[in-house]
Amino acid sequence: MAQEREKFLRQQSCPAKFSEVEAALGKFVEEQRQFQRKIVLVTSGGTAVPLESRTVRFIDNFSIGTRGASSTEYFLQEGYAVIFLNRDRSLKPFQRHFSHQNMLDLLHLDLETNSTSVKKEYESKVSRIVQRYTKCKEQNQLLSIEFQTLGEYLTYLQACATALRPLGSNAMLYLAAAVSDFYIPKEQMPEHKIQSSDGPIQLSLQLVPKMLEPLVSEWVPEAFTVSFKLETDKDLLVPKAKQALEKYKHQMVIANVLETRKREVTLITSQFSFPINLTAEEISRGVEIEERIVQQLKLKHCEFCEKNIPQ
Ligand code: 9Z3
């Protein structure tokens, strides 16, 4: 198993910006340690699996990174520094509130002076978001790292986890990215674009080695690690989540079903199962389930730190 994992990681080409990212990570972690801030690594979005070396096509998944981007905002609000390892073109913290389309709806044009301003009814919401964003920038609380492919994601995941190691129990990992279970090994991948004139294609995908195992046992063993379990069959969800917890021996699995993930999740540890459900009224008021998740995690992480004095 360990050999397979190492082979897989070795096979991945080093992301173009790897050295730059590694240096930024080291600097960020050191700065946050000086401020005695806890750091959470939030992973977010889907991982693309290339079909060709010079990639035109890839296999992707549904995730647009709502969970990761919104959780990041709530972690920042709770005083954490955040390393946001996210898929390119997925949702970003703060920016997500201003999609291209709703930007125009937010603005009022004064025809006399030809100037624009935020419409009255949106003023308080917009200023709240801008205030939080400004505070997080001023305090240098957020480091964003982008990936596109599965290989880039796993390479950066290892680098981020390793950089967090000196923090001991003050580090949290919140693994919300939707990680592909299947990939095409380099030696089986055509270099050039697959030609449709060659007829239908048959793909043979290999299993991606599970990186949660070395992450928990080697890369960052003292951290508070939270993974997500996603299923479409709700009867499988809790047993699978418990299985993952037993297998990888980390601190928590957050179980969610694809269709209901924005209103229902269950936090599962070796001691308890804690459901979080939003009511229809809360949803209509714009409450986000990530706010509740982050509140619970902050408490659990504090208890964890008290039991495991950081270095
Ligand atoms: C999740 O389960 C996330 O909650 C979602 C968030 C991807 C559903 P969105 O980006 O969705 O807000 O649209 N993430 C983890 C999914 C995953 O790949 N889990 C693996 C598994 O279930 C284990 S690490 O086997």
TrEMBL record:
It comes from the Eukaryota. Pfam families: DFP (PF04127). SUPFAM superfamilies: CoaB-like. It catalyses: (R)-4'-phosphopantothenate + L-cysteine + CTP = N-[(R)-4-phosphopantothenoyl]-L-cysteine + CMP + diphosphate + H(+); (R)-4'-phosphopantothenate + L-cysteine + ATP = N-[(R)-4-phosphopantothenoyl]-L-cysteine + AMP + diphosphate + H(+). Residues 167-262 form the DNA/pantothenate metabolism flavoprotein C-terminal domain. One of its GO terms (molecular function) is phosphopantothenate--cysteine ligase activity. Its EC number is 6.3.2.51. InterPro entries: CoaB-like_sf, DNA/pantothenate-metab_flavo_C. GO terms for biological process: coenzyme A biosynthetic process. Belongs to the PPC synthetase family. Catalyzes the second step in the biosynthesis of coenzyme A from vitamin B5, where cysteine is conjugated to 4'-phosphopantothenate to form 4-phosphopantothenoylcysteine. Has a preference for ATP over CTP as a cosubstrate. This is Phosphopantothenate--cysteine ligase.
